[in-house]
Design brief:
Blueprint (H helix, E strand, L loop, with lengths): L4 E4 L6 H11 L5 E3 L6 H6 L2 E4 L15 E4 L18 E3 L3 H19 L2 H9 L15 E4 L3 H12 L4 E4 L7 H5 L3 E4 L13 H6 L4 E5 L8 H9 L3 E6 L19 E3 L9 H17 L14
Parallel strand pairs: 1-2, 1-3, 3-4, 4-5, 6-7, 6-8, 8-9, 9-10, 10-11
Helix pairs in contact: 1-9, 3-5
The structure holds oxalic acid.
Length: about 300
């Protein structure tokens, strides 16, 4: 069997790299690069989607669709309401991606805890002033305790930070926030977690706390965050993800002292891992075996 596969990475410029990676593992596969110009007959043949998003209105044009495989850890962009409920979904789980995110988070925690922005500023002023500190031991909360959250927690623990993990089944979030000096968001974006990091959450944190977001911009009410940082309730935030990506040049987030913006680079799955896990999943699909890393569509992760 060789089911036609629609390739839909985040950006059309990534199609050749994804195609080459998949064909290097399974040269016989039929890959159809996504484009708005694909005709109805081609779309009607598609049985598998390997990608990152399903544009609204596309799912009804794929009547033969049998499986959606997400190249991303977060699958919310692949769950439009018009995707028929019986279509199974799975995702790539790349330990290297989790490690990359943990490295980025460690960098952001240490940057804040070891006061790097202060020394950057002092260098700009040619000012040689010492503010020595013993080892930092900020209490860290990791929200979202899947592959990524657990790798982040292990990395921060190894650096000497006390860490508590939280998932939605752990109970109310505010008591944990009240005892956390750094909050790291690694949650999946679902209707239940959307906007979770809002004015109430920021008010629950001790004054001077710090937020690191490596999940999705939709978790944060950005106007509330800006107000919390400007008032000094939060010392700042490191946002690798934002509500609107790319972040528009005139977005107010850019200019808030204490907020660091990075352009969704915390980590990338390796193309080789994506290709190998996808081809292994395809074999399971064809042999009627359970799909590895299946997504619970009702829960959204
Ligand atoms: C992901 C991402 O979800 O890169 O994998 O944001």
């Amino acid at each position: 069997m060789n089911p036609p596969i629609l390739l839909l990475p985040p950006d059309p410029s990534q199609i050749p790299a994804f195609r080459d990676a998949v064909l290097a593992v399974a040269p016989e596969l039929e890959l159809i690069p996504w484009s708005r110009e694909l005709d109805a007959a081609t779309l009607a043949r598609v049985q598998v989607l390997l990608g990152w998003r399903l544009p609204p209105g596309l799912a009804p044009q794929l009547p033969a669709l049998r499986w959606v495989c997400s190249i991303a850890a977060g699958v919310e962009k692949l769950l439009p309401p018009d995707l028929p409920p019986q279509i199974p979904m799975s995702r790539v789980v790349d330990p290297d991606q989790a490690l990359g995110i943990a490295q980025h988070v460690a960098l952001m925690v240490l940057r804040h805890a070891r006061q790097l922005p202060l020394y950057d500023e002092q260098q700009r002023q040619h000012s040689w002033q010492r503010h020595p500190k013993a080892a930092a031991r900020h209490r860290c909360a990791v929200l979202g305790f899947g592959e990524v959250g657990q790798t982040v927690a292990a990395t921060l623990s190894a650096l000497g930070f006390p860490v508590e993990g939280w998932r939605r089944s752990s109970g109310p979030l505010l008591p944990l926030l009240a005892r956390s000096e750094v909050v790291i968001n690694a949650l999946p974006l679902t209707p239940e977690t959307s906007g979770l990091l809002n004015a109430q959450a920021f008010a629950a944190l001790p004054r001077g706390a710090y937020l690191i977001n490596v999940a999705r911009g939709g978790h944060v009410i950005e106007a509330d965050l800006i107000a919390a940082v400007r008032s000094g309730q939060l010392a700042g935030a490191a946002l690798d993800v934002q509500q609107t990506e790319p972040l528009p040049a005139d977005d107010p987030l850019w200019d808030v002292p204490g907020i660091l913006i990075t352009p969704h680079i915390a980590a990338q799955s390796s193309l080789d891992t994506v290709a190998r896990q996808f081809v292994a999943g395809l074999q399971c699909l064809e042999q009627g075996r359970p799909l590895p890393n299946a997504v619970d569509r009702a829960r959204g992760y």
